[in-house]
Structure to design on (425 residues):
């Protein structure tokens, strides 16, 4: 990352701290009168779901969760790609959660340098996720969960080309309650190695590393708003062999517990700075998109 | 015919991850079972969509068995985010909710079907 980018990231973290301090101070004014109206929240989805909270659900709970991630914008032309995972989530113990489901993708690509034009939808894979509590919130102020997500895809997530792709998304998902039932801080650490076989028959390895920080504030009961900041690095090779680019995403998040058994979580993030070796642009639009969004609905069964 | 198989290293990694996950699950289930054998018992009832009493106590670092009696004519669902449990209890019947050993603190619970019904478990 360039010196300019480092300064930008530093400023962003400062902005985050100022926002947190402002919310903290403003909350004291109303906390006394309405403290009883705000109840405990499961933190898993309150950060908009790019950053995931530590909650692993309630023992015996089962849910259906369609989750869509969309990416918009590349170096030119028109680029819109979305992937929906039709997840079945269940919690067999008070320490572990399992999520399984097929993925369906939609590609609308026109005139993007380096990518074939494509307008199609396809069932393109299967994902599973195993989440286990590492550190419980009480007595620790920070709760931490380990998430392992093996994935298989039959189409490239970026281009839609036919491939055979296996990946393992490993994440540490941590959060802390800064003000009881009101203000939460989330932190994720991501390591995602993938191996892909394309037309030429050779396997190619790549790795994504990421770190995030998010704030979420329960503004009225069951509605949480916040902001999410991600720093992502992409490498060729399974062990950070060759750096190909990095990006910083920032955007708002929204969570709404619509009914006791239904919730919604959404995030929209823009790449605000990035770097690709040998390219003078201030964004990395080869490894990452200009904008990305996530929308999740949960229906408890 | 050419067979295109997943690289051996990737297969090993995935297999190792699954093995660790299974081992972790087995350890957790075994430890939960051991704790449940020495669990503390607490009783609570629900009438007119209110917990009676609304505050219950239990010892720290021991599994807890909460006996919930539903005295109403409608079903209720005992639920708690921090205890990570839920159980639907039919009208006029009793259910048992098993909770892991807890650190000292206050843990909220509620009736998910009638959310005005709320209570707290004090662990000390």
């Amino acid at each position: 990352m360039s010196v300019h980018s480092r300064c930008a990231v530093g400023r962003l973290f400062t902005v985050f701290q100022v926002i947190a301090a402002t919310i903290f101070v403003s909350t004291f004014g109303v906390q006394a009168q309405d403290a009883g109206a705000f109840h405990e929240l499961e933190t898993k989805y309150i950060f908009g779901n790019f950053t995931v909270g530590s909650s692993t659900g309630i023992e015996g709970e089962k849910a259906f969760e369609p989750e869509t991630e969309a990416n918009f914008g590349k170096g030119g032309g028109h680029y819109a790609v979305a992937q929906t995972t039709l997840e079945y989530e269940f919690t067999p113990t008070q320490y572990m959660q399992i999520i399984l489901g097929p993925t369906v993708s939609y590609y609308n690509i026109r005139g993007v340098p380096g990518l074939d034009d494509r307008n199609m939808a396809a069932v393109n894979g299967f994902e599973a996720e195993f989440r286990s509590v590492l550190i419980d919130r009480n007595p620790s102020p920070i709760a931490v969960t380990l998430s392992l997500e093996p994935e298989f895809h039959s189409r490239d997530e970026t281009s839609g080309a036919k491939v055979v792709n296996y990946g393992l998304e490993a994440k540490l998902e941590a959060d802390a309650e800064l003000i009881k039932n009101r203000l939460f801080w989330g932190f994720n650490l991501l390591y995602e190695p993938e191996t892909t076989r394309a037309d030429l028959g050779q396997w190619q390895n790549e790795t994504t590393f990421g770190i995030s920080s998010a704030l979420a504030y329960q503004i009225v009961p069951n509605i949480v708003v916040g902001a999410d900041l991600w720093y992502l690095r992409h490498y060729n090779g399974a062990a950070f062999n060759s750096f190909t680019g990095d990006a910083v995403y920032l955007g708002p998040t929204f969570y709404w517990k619509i009914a006791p058994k239904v919730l919604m979580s959404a995030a929209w993030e823009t790449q605000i700075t990035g770097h690709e070796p040998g390219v003078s642009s201030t964004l990395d639009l080869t490894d990452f998109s200009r904008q990305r969004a996530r929308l999740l609905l949960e229906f408890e069964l | 015919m050419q067979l295109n198989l997943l690289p051996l290293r990737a297969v090993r990694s995935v297999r190792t991850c699954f093995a660790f996950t299974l081992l972790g699950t087995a350890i957790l289930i075994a430890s939960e079972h051991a704790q449940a054998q020495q669990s503390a018992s607490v009783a609570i009832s629900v009438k007119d969509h209110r917990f009676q009493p609304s505050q219950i106590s239990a010892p720290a670092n021991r599994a807890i068995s909460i006996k919930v009696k539903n005295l109403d004519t409608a079903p209720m669902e005992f639920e708690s985010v921090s205890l990570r449990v839920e159980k639907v209890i039919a009208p006029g019947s009793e259910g048992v909710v098993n909770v892991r050993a807890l650190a000292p603190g206050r843990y909220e619970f509620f009736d998910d079907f009638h959310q005005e019904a709320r209570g707290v478990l004090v662990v000390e």
